[in-house]
Design brief:
The chain is mainly α. The chain contains five helices and no strands. It starts with 10 loop residues before the first helix and ends in an 8-residue tail after the last helix.
Length: 79
């Protein structure tokens, strides 16, 4: 259990992307990354870095105080 990877829930972020950009592809383009890279980020296959989080927040008008809700909410583990 020690080496378990933390899985984050990006459903709120996905909703915000849809609200502001309609598609993840359009958001990825504006963010300056590939659609594949965005998919990896949103599916916990890659980690968000601080500059990318900052740029995403500017594009999606996410306040600094709300960053934990969008980027660091852990998925509830099913037992």
């Amino acid at each position: 259990m020690e080496n378990e990877k933390t899985i984050f829930d990006y459903s709120k972020l996905r909703g915000r992307i849809k609200e502001y950009f309609e598609t993840e592809t359009k958001f990825a383009e504006t963010l300056g990354i590939s659609n594949v890279q965005l998919s990896c980020l949103l599916n916990n296959k890659a980690n968000w870095d601080q500059p990318l989080i900052n740029k995403a927040c500017m594009l999606l008008e996410i306040l600094a105080i709300d960053i934990p809700v969008y980027f660091f909410t852990e998925k509830v583990k099913e037992v």
